[in-house]
Amino acid sequence: MRSLLKRIANPASSAFRITFFDPNDTDGPRLGPHSGSLHINNVSQHNGLITISGTAIESLLELKQKTLLEYAPLPRRTHNAAIYKDGIIYNDTGSNRLVIADRKNRIKQSFDVPEYEPSTLSNAHLPNDHARPGFARGLCLYGDDVVIGGSSPSTVSAYSLSAGRRVSSINISRDIRNCIHGLEVWPG
Predict the structure, then answer these.
(1) Cβ pair 174, 115 in contact under 8 A
(2) Residues spanned by the domain of 86
(3) CATH code where residue 124 lies
(4) Does 64 score more than 80 pLDDT?
(5) What's the whole-model pTM score?
(6) 85 backbone φψ class: left, alpha, beta (φ>0; ψ -120 to 50)
(7) Residue 98, domain member (yes or no)
(8) What is the DSSP letter of 140?
């Protein structure tokens, strides 16, 4: 059995509870077109604290025992939110940028993801709710000064915190349907 974040009866409610997940139990998660309405996209740990975030959850949630608490507020449409030093770090996908903020979500630093001329992109005709250029997603740290982020179309960028700017970027494809989602520095 695994723990599962589950909304209380009203799907529009912002209240959460922790339950044990049993796929054969009738009290399991809702199925159907709105069953993924929280869009949980990141679960991480920091010094033993487990955090959860999703594009429809306006908080970075911390799991303590069997309780979910707000660790920090977030804007809607964020990806990869996590604890960072004395605050938080996340991809503000709605604003096409990577953000470092304090626990009240007061922005300390932000970095715009790379933009490309529309004429150089493929599948740029798709609706923005399907795919779009600038979609910020994918995030990892490299040492104490560099943050690596992904974006659409298939771009990986390195940002220097001390310099306050993007220091490197590589584009793999100009097809806006392709976005870098998961990033991790491989131990070497």
Answers:
(1) no
(2) 38-171
(3) 2.130.10.10
(4) yes
(5) 0.81
(6) left
(7) yes
(8) E
